[in-house]
Amino acid sequence: MPDELTPLVDLRSFDHYIDSCISLAHHSLSGYASLAQIEACEAEINRYPRLDRLGPPRHLVVLEDGDAQALRVERAREALARGRVLLEHTAAGEGTRLMLGPKYLLNLGRNLSLAALAHDLSQEYGREVTPAALARELDVLPQELLPISLGNRHMLQLAFDLANLVRGLGADPREVLPRQHILVIVSEELAARIEREFRQWHFFGFDRRRVFFMVQQSFHGLSYRAGRFMYDQAAPRRLHNHGQMVMQETMDRQLFTWTGPRAEDRRYLSRQEAADWLAGFDDKISYNIEDLDYLTGSLDLPALGLALELGEQGYHMVMEVVANNPESPQKGGMLAWDAELGREVMIESFQLGGLPKREIQFLNRNFNHYPQPLQSWRRVGEAGLPMPVAVKEGFLYFQPVQGDINFLVNTAFFRRQELKPIRNLKNQKNLPLAINCLAAQDRQPGFSEFARRLWEGHP
């Protein structure tokens, strides 16, 4: 974590942000002889400062069953029905690990054959995986899935679950879906296509005026010559990770919606308008497009009810932890007790000094809640986030992480009574599981008919 003398991230504009990056590089990295040396020392540069003195979590909240859960579920239903929860989806990742392109556009029903998947898994495992053996693991063949991209499936599942929820309350989905507020974060590369798909799907039954977008900025890298860092427009443009995304959300005129049906009918929010908008929510949920359990249950009512309860107790971030999968452990945020701070902290994987993935016991699920979201938004805008670094293709890029908000605001961490392994689409080994989860989504009673009605504009 930065010390008190580290330059703060200036979020007044993108130019100020880049100036901050250059100042941070000079402050922290000018003792290195070259970018190659910085790259060789990345693990140490990004290392959490008290890594050797961390211990197991002490105050994990357990989301228990029983009367308390029933009350939380009822409270969550009411908050959703009233449109008091901001539902954020992030779709700006570069999608490099799967080598199948950006995950929002991932369409396994169209873009992945059984033979190709068997070949890729053979390469991944270092042993032959035959198409016949793979088929026995799958509930359906890839081409039997509905030909809908992962991003559109996320929005469809959200609308589907909300429609079912409000029907259970005796309400009309055509009245309640338009009350919802959605925030979608896209990359510059995907922005036009995703916006077009939202219009093609008639905004999935939501009111287009309440569907907000932000295009996450990408940046050239920094070069390092004669002891000086400079913003080098010859460097490839890259995203500065999901931490830059949440910092950008606090900048002026970044969130926009549409006032009309055309792509150019955009209305941008000033920083004050964004603050006023956020003040109207009891919670913001930041959804993770990689989570496979979402595909058959986007509304986690017990967790939402717990987040609302914790918000009343003064917590402005709530993070769920799950078990790492012992058969296919993955990197990610690790929960630990920091005795010096006297609290639990969530630490990103590249700050763990090369700790083996198998040793991460409590893993961040990346389904973050922000009770009273204006509070965390303000703190991020005031302080910025820690700025880890990475050297890629011979240039320096910063890699702030969204989870580091837990160092800025009072944060609660919770787990289920049964600590199940994480089920994510992180790498090619997870693709058979993903196909089965997509098939389970398709088999939900009424799901395919609901998708067809939305496509036709009749939720």
What is this structure's SSE topology?
Elements: H1 14-29, H2 35-40, H3 42-45, E1 54-55, E2 61-63, H4 67-81, E3 85-91, H5 108-111, H6 114-125, H7 131-137, H8 150-168, H9 173-176, E4 181-187, H10 191-200, E5 211-216, E6 218-219, E7 222-225, E8 228-231, E9 238-239, H11 241-248, E10 256-258, E11 266-268, H12 271-278, E12 283-287, H13 301-312, E13 317-323, E14 334-338, E15 343-347, E16 362-371, H14 374-383, E17 389-392, E18 395-398, E19 411-416, H15 431-443, H16 447-456
Parallel strand pairs: 2-19, 3-4, 3-12, 4-5, 13-19
Antiparallel strand pairs: 1-14, 6-9, 7-8, 10-11, 12-16, 13-16, 14-15, 17-18
Q: Can you walk me through this structure?
A:
The chain is of the alpha/beta class and 459 residues long. The protein has a single domain, classed as Spore Coat Polysaccharide Biosynthesis Protein SpsA, Chain A, CATH 3.90.550.10. Helix content is 34%, strand content 19%. It has helices spanning 14-29, 35-40, 42-45, 67-81, 108-111, 114-125, 131-137, 150-168, 173-176, 191-200, 241-248, 271-278, 301-312, 374-383, 431-443, 447-456; strands spanning 54-55, 61-63, 85-91, 181-187, 211-216, 218-219, 222-225, 228-231, 238-239, 256-258, 266-268, 283-287, 317-323, 334-338, 343-347, 362-371, 389-392, 395-398, 411-416. Strands 2-19-13-16-12-3-4-5 form an eight-stranded mixed sheet, sandwiched between helices. A three-stranded antiparallel sheet has the order 1-14-15, with no helix packed on it. α4 crosses α13 (301-312). The longest helix is centred in the middle third of the chain and has 19 residues, at 150-168. It is globular, with a radius of gyration of 22 Å. The N and C termini lie far apart (47 Å). 42% of the residues are buried.
